[in-house]
Amino acid sequence: MIALLGPEIAWYLGVAAFLFATGAFGVLLRRNPLIVLLSLEIMLNGANLALIGFSRNLGDGGGQIFALAVMAVAASEVVVGLGLVVALNRKRITLDVDRLNTLRG
Amino acid sequence: MVWGAWICLLSPLVAACAITVGGTHLSRRAAGWLATSSCVVAFAGAVASFVGLLTHTASDRQFISTAWTWISGGRYQSGLSVIVDPLSVFMMLIVAGVGGLIVWYSIGYMDGDDEERRYFAYMALFVFSMLLLVQSGNLILLLAGWGMVGLSSYLLIGYWHQRPTAVAAAKKAFVMNAIGDATMALALFLLIQQGNSLEFGVLGGDFSSTVANLVALGLLGGAVAKSAQIPLHTWLPDAMEGPTPVSALIHAATMVTAGVYLIVRTHAIFEQAPKVADVAAGLGAATLLVAGLIALVQVDIKRVIAYSTMSQIGYMFVGAGIGSYPNAMFHLMTHAFFKALLFMTAGIVIHALTDEQDIRKMGGLRQLAPKTYWAFLVGSLALVGIFPFAGFFSKDSILAAAMAKGGAFGYILWAAGLAGTFLTGLYTFRLLFVVFWGEPSAFVREHFHPLGRDVVAFSLAIPVGILGVLSVVGGWIQFSPWWHPVETWLQTVAEPIVSPASWQEWTSIALSLLLGLTGIGVAWAIYGAHRVAVPRIAWAQRTLEHKFYFDEAYDALFYAPAVFLANFLRRGVEQPLIADSGRDLGDDTRDLGGIVARAQTGLVRTYALAIATGVAVLAIVFVIVK
Amino acid sequence: MIPRPHVDWFALAPVNSLLVATGIALLCAVLVPRRGRKGAAGLACALGYAAAFGFAIALYVKSPHPEGVVANAFDRDRLTALATMIVAATGFLTVAVAYRERAREDHTAEYYALLAAAGAGMCFFVGANNLMTLFLALEWFSISLYILCAIDRDRIGGLEAALKYLVIGSFGSAVLLFGSALVYGATGKLDFAGIAAAGAQHDVLLLFGLAMLIAGLSFKASAAPFHQWTPDVYEGAPTPVTGFMAAATKTAALVVMLRVLVTAFPANAHLWTVAVAVISVCSLVIGNFAALVQRGVKRMLAYSSVSQAGFMLIGIAANSSLGGQALLYYLIPYTAMSIGAFAVVAARERELGVPVTFENMAGFGWERPLFGVAMWAFMLGFAGFPLTGGFVGKFYVFSAAYRHGWTWLVIVGVLATLVSLYYYLGLVRAMFMRRTEDLQLAPIGGSPPREALLQTVTVTCLVVTVGSFFAVQPLIDLCRHAVDSLPF
Amino acid sequence: MTTLLICLPLAAALIVWVLPLNPVSAGSLSLLAALAEVGVWIQLVVRYDFSKGGLQFSEQHTWIKDLGVSYHVGVYGFSVWLIGLTVVVLAAAIAYAFWAGRERTRAYMGLMLFLTGAIVGVFTAQDLLLFYAFFEAMLIPLYILVGVWGGPGRLGATLKFVLYTMAGSLLMLAAIIAYGLSQGTFDLVAINPVSSDWLFLGFVAAFAIKAPLFPLHGWLPDAYRESSPEVAAVLSGVVSKAAAYGFLRIAITKFPGPAHDFRVPILALATVSLIYGSLLAFRAPDMRGVVAYSSLAQMGLITMGVFAVNDLGLDGSVLQMVNHGLVSATLFLIVGMIERRTLTGELGRLGGMARGRPALATVLLTAGVIALAVPLSSAFAGEFLILAGIFQRGWGWAVAGAVAIVLAAMYVLRLISAVLHRDVGPAVSESALDLRPAELGVTVPLLVCLLALSVWPAAITQHSFRGDHGAFDVAEQFK
Amino acid sequence: MLIASAGNVLVWMVWIVAAFACLGSGVAVVSFSSPFYSALGLIGNLGSLAVLYLLLSAEFVAAAQVLVYAGAVMVMFLFVIAYIGPRSESPWAGGPSWQAVGAVLASGAVFIEIVVVIGLKASGQLSHSEHVDGTFGTPAYIGRLFLTDHLLAFEITSIVLLVAAVGGVVLGAHSRRSAEEVPSL
Predict the structure, then answer these.
(1) Do D221 and B579 touch (CB under 8 A)?
(2) CA D359/CA D440 separation, integer angstroms
(3) What is the 3-state secondary structure (H, E, C) of B390-408?
(4) Pick from B600, B605, B608: CB nearest A104
(5) How far is C-alpha B591 from the chain's CA centre?
């Protein structure tokens, strides 16, 4: 049986929280859709770290499985997101989410 | 007997409906004859009822026939019922009889009018309404008849509806009468509350004096309005806008006397409320004086007669108010005769002068229309109460009864009545002299056209003749010092509560004859012989010409405030508060919507911010509240 | 030898039939020649939905007792079955609405494949029994919808909508995911029953996770203040897809929200009932007020769907069997009305060739009486008028709120309904009371062909909308049995 | 029987909508259906056992079993008359619409028939939720009828009408839910009276707006002005009675306590409506304004009668509901006929129409004098009973009512003389014809009904509540 | 004992390095003006995360992270960035907008809230982690879980990827008639 070495889980979770918040901050602030997508990845990574941290804390493999699934999902989102960015680019639209405001009100 | 009463009641209604439905399928003349014959049938029914009553003993002369329950509310209910008793039969005979004559007269008078059929339908409707009023077996039907005569009166006054004055007069009459209806209705509500019934019998019940006073006041309100007594009298002179036979029928012979009938019919409650009865008598006295005074300065032939009507009804009110019911009813009957006669002769004059009513343009008609003159003279003498004409017999006994009532109030009434007699003589003969005496004026010479010898003339002349005869002999059926069949007949319904002594009778007769003759004499001196100049007192003249400013006062007190209030509500409440507030609320809501929609910036970052904020708030609340 | 869990194929049959349909449609994209491609793929998709519907009925009948299948990851119960039925029916109708759309012929097969995939995801979503399957199924159908929004790449609005949807959707998913992680951390369990049984109701991590879960699910149900993507996406997406999103996504999200909250967090009911009620009030207020000023019909319907979500959330907030029944019952006419309304919008769109606004609905009611009357009925249904199931639905959610002791919520709902009348009836007004001459547009290509498919869809929706008013008791029985699978 | 009454017009509406008929056959079919409905109603009158009273012809089917909601319909003595009012007025309205020729006949006729069914439903529903459903269902056709076939200001008018009405109805819905759930049933017959003020006010709000009572009548002038005459006739004649019926059937019988506590404020509102409506009718510049505001006044009066909560008041208000329904429907139809001839309703531009148009004059005059409750008319009987009833609650109310009677005389006579009498108005041309036979065929039956009621108002007052102890029990509680 | 504590110190040091790298690269991703540098930042972030995963006994996840994420996904990112050309954007230009202020406040609030919540729990359940055996987090362990308890999740993941692949095809493919304008509905 292996005990957890190094910092307690809470520290990991702190990092996870910071990542999640940073990612959210990126989504809220950045206008370039590519960077927004990257920020979303950061958010998901934060969540993943939390899952794995908890998984270790509980000694339960479910969290790791979940994290793996999230990776796949994140990859899927990226694919679709990048596809959209490419399609928009092909329409000669400036890549700025603030310009995407024809739908509003 | 009871069937006679129903025939009497319904035949004019049938005629009215037939004329309405028949429309142009009916010739104009046929409509006239239909209406007349329905009145004749009604009269026959009334006679049948009269004869039927005669076959019963005096104490057994009251029959109520109910067709069906007319109205009900919980335990209260009233039938569609007619009463046959001496009082109602008495009135039926007058209404159907005089009414029939006047309708007959109308055939001539209205000949050639555009809408004769409508006229006769209205007339028949009126006769029906009046019969309903006098025959109704309970108070609510009485009120129904009361309102129906008001309606027919409205229709007939406004018959010439293209005349704005006629329309206005009709409306005024109706509204004034509606006020009376309303007070009467309130009295009936109180009766329902107290006795849960509107049969006439309930009036004899044991009421507290407040209740009795209120009920009596309510009924008096109705009576005053219908009979054009002060203070609800202003409609009557204006009502002369209607065709002259209408004035004769409604505003002289029948409808306006309904107030008297009402008081007599409901005397039980007035006897429980003597103060209100005194008010009735006092109003009657006031009216007879005021009307007599105003009549002195009127220049419209029909208005003079109208004011004389008010004045005469004042006498009846005095009689009814002091409890001398048979005398009041007797005067009602004789008044019906001679006042109808006066109006109809006036109608002939107007007819002959192509609808001119201003007496200042008339004169000297005695030479041109002597028979009319004689008829008018008979009517005038009967009105003033000169022996042996009808008015003499009836009016004087009212004065005697006032004297018999005694007390200061009784003597005041008596004095007022006597003064009224003088005024009556004065204004009646002023009219007679101005219209008939002297030389024919230029206007008369130009416009006068005598009656022919056709149906028109006959239907004008024959009723006048009959009424003339009745005005002479009609009074003889009762001469109170010696014989009084009217009183005996009405005994079981309305026992008089005053019985004048013989000296009171004779004193009144003598004084009133004297004063009447004095009045005639003064009139002769001023208008007949022109011996004395017309006295001119500017303020009095003005006051009288403005009819004591009643119209102006009512206008300022009621009509103008009502209009002002209505306009204020329309502009100050309805528009800004009711109509606009809804719209404003709607607009504000939409504006709010605009604000909400503006939060929808179209920027994806804002949307994310909203979510993040939502999460932050939700989470912190959860953690804190647990 | 690894002990493989028993797989109850029957329970997964609706999902699988849709997956098969997806596969066939994708194969069509490759194998079937261009001319027959659309028909074949559409047919496959429709058959998939029909099969899913049929299987769902069978499941409903055969699953009187709830049980978890495939290692307790998926719930086989009547709630799942009923929700699957609604989603499958919605999808079936959407195929019909979409079929005649004037779109470029590029990706028709993929279109139907994605439509089937999205439906499969939703069918899975409503049966999810642990946080992981929940998240994955959510992503499954969300990603399908992102693509569907942008399927016509020539429409800039579609791309914009898709990108917005993707960004915001992923943001919401991330929130949901982090919440799941926290709940997992607090309880050590991923499955709902386990979470409830862990007895960690006072754990702050759990509460924080619960808050994030509620936010994430509200986002999918487009409840305020997590709703802002809704109008933009609804407006930008192809109309049939919008109808599908309005009807099916909302159904799935609300059913799952009900299931998660009731199954996993019964001990925290005092918190989440209030939170859901507050969210519902926000939705009612914001949805209704914003809808007041809309000129575009799709946008108005989007805001209306926000406010409808508010009404349905009342049923969840009531946290009772009655509330659950109310929600499920409400969903039936609601989905019919949504699909129907968007079908009518699609019909007008195809006539005019421009986005449909209130102004260019003028005279539509008289020109196309069937669509006009149907739209009228749908609007009345949204507004909760009698003779439509919307009325009974509102009655039920208000009853649930009242039973829960929240009369104030009833009052709010009532006032919101009042405000909503303005725009619902405004559309009726635009269709019937403005004359065609007011319209400044010439329809493209003359008189449009009578579209039998659209008309059939509309009539079907009309029948459901009106029929659910009369057949309340059978439907309620259906819903009650479904709700009985939840631990109230 | 009851279901037949409800469903016959609904079925006819469906047929008219679905079958591709030409306008004439659609119109005739609708008229036939409306007349058949009248025939069914006559059957109902014949077969209703008035000596027994109470709920008859009741039918009950499960609707929402869990919550105690059912399709429960039935007829009380007084509802017989309100149904009669409905079917007669609607038949007249349909006949007039047919004669006048409305565009899109099928839609129009179908909506009118639908409306008939909905209103009959309101008067027969014996379940709160069913009542509400019918109450709202009335609004559906009315919205379209006013909004599509109305005058130039129809859009605003319908919006106002619907929003006002729904504001009240939705509060009522809240009250219904609270009431029904707290009692475990929504059955109007079985549900127990309660004493909750809030629930009572919820119901009263709905009815006070629908009736309407001052100051909730903001929708009334516009709706009555902008709708086509027959729709205005139905609105003021029949639809408003649904509110009075609600006061009678629900507000006072199910909430005796609050009805007692709130009697003074409600009576005050009713009285204000009465006087206010009368005054505004007196100054209204057009015919419809007069009739519309008089309707406000009359509904105030009827409300007074209901809230007198005694035999007299209740009998009177039922009678007056029928009377006012018939008379205001007649008046609105006549107004429509006049407007067809003169293209205006402004009183200032009308006048002198009596000359040469005896039928028009007779019809308007007859309707008018009944409207002003000339004694011996049925309206008089109704008002008399109402005021006699309210007199027992306080003489002041009756005095106000009496004042209003005088005002009624003023405004009706103003209307009559402005249209018929005096000089010929600028809008009246010589070529404006007298009423045509078809128009007489529409108005005369209504007037005949009124005259028949005038001859025998007890037909209604004696056959409304006998044996129906609900109302009397309430009355007992007030003593 | 000494070895254990030495191991502990070592792990702490590794953790500190990895955590700070992780935080730093995270901040870098959101604050670089060029997407290219951001993407590189993300790679660093993923790498440092993989180290953290290793410290948490999640070997297979760490490996997958490096292979799938840093390998495949990031390549795709860089490819797209290269395809459309890096465009710079200065997120902080023009002073703080209300959006920026809101962003700071909202994300800061979320962060602080989570940290506080974790802090509240730090002395409880989070203070001692379960002991795990050596197989925990190994590929075999993960594979067994995937085929037993989380079979369905495994399957769904594949479907999600399939859907994404279809999306990539649909969105990314060159349209055959992109020059023609087709009515856009």
Answers:
(1) yes
(2) 8
(3) HHHHHHHHHHHHHHHHCHH
(4) B600
(5) 61
Chain A neighbors of B605, CB-CB under 8 A: 27-29, 31, 97-98
Q: How far is CA B464 from CA B44, B593, C137, D105, in A?
A: 20, 82, 109, 63
pLDDT of residue D111: 94
| Alpha-carbon span B619 to D457, nearest angstrom | 70
Nearest partner of C17 among C58, C48, C59, judged by Cα: C48
Tell me what pLDDT residue B605 has. 86
| Rounded CA separation B364/C270 (Å) | 108
Given pLDDT bands bounded at 50, 70 and 90, which one contains residue D270?
Answer: very high
Contact list in A for residue B609 (CB cut-off 8 A) is 28
Helix runs in B86-208, H state only: 86-109, 116-135, 139-157, 164-195
Residue C459, judged by CB atoms within 10 A of its CB (0-12, 13-18, 19+), counts as: middle
B560 is written with which tokens?
């103008």
**Nearest-Cα residue of chain C relative to residue B611:** C226
Per the CB < 8 A criterion, the answer to whether D280 and D293 are in contact is yes
Cα separation, B64 vs E13, whole angstroms: 121
**Pick from D359, D289, D298, D368: which is nearest to D331 by CA?**
D368
Return the SS3 of B80.
strand
Give, as one character, the DSSP assignment of residue C227: -
**Nearest residue, CB atoms, C71 vs list E149, E175, E176:** E149
| Closest by Cα among C444, C440, C464 to C390 | C464
β-sheet bridge partners, residue C69: C74
- C-alpha–C-alpha distance, residues E29 and E38, integer Å: 4
Three-state SS for D359-379 is HHHHHHHHHHHHHCCCCCCHH
- Tokens matching residue E122: 């730090």
Q: Is the pLDDT at E94 greater than 70, yes or no?
A: no
Helix (H) / strand (E) containing B373 = helix B370-384
* Ramachandran area for residue B188 (φ above 0: left; ψ -120 to 50: alpha; else beta): alpha
Positive or negative: CA dihedral B520, B522, B526, B530: positive
Report helix, strand or coil for B1: coil
B570 contact D CB<8A:
yes
The alpha carbon of residue B623 is apart from the nearest alpha carbon of chain E, in Å, by 8
Per-residue model confidence as pLDDT tens digits over B400-413: 888 888 788 888 88
b/e per residue D307-331 (b: at least 16 CB within 10 A): bbbbbbbbbbbbbbbbbbbbbbbbb
Question: What's the distance, Cα to Cα, between the start and end of chain D in Å?
Answer: 37
Instruction: Report d(CA D48, CA D468) in Å as an integer.
Output: 13
DSSP structure class, residue D236: I
What does the pLDDT average to over B516-532?
A: 85
Rounded to the nearest 5 percent, the helix, strand and coil shares of chain D are 75, 5, 20
Q: How many Cβ pairs within 8 Å bridge chains A and E? A: 268
* ipTM, two decimals: 0.90
Beta carbons of B312 and B339 less than 8 angstroms apart: yes
Number of H helices, E strands in chain E: 7, 0
What's the one-letter identity of residue B462? I
Residue identified by tokens 């309930």 is B202
Interatomic CA distance for residues C114 and C241, integer angstroms: 11
Give SS3 for B292.
Answer: helix
Classified as helix, coil or strand, C69 is strand
User: Residue C237 — φ and ψ, nearest 5°?
Assistant: -75, 155
| Residue E180, pLDDT score | 44
What residues form DSSP beta bridges with D70?
A: D62
C-alpha dist (Å) from residue B488 to B183, B484, B492, B493? 33, 6, 8, 10
Q: Which residue type, as a one-letter code, is found at position A53?
A: G
CA distance E163 to B480: 122
Euclidean distance between CA atoms C448 and D10, whole angstroms: 32
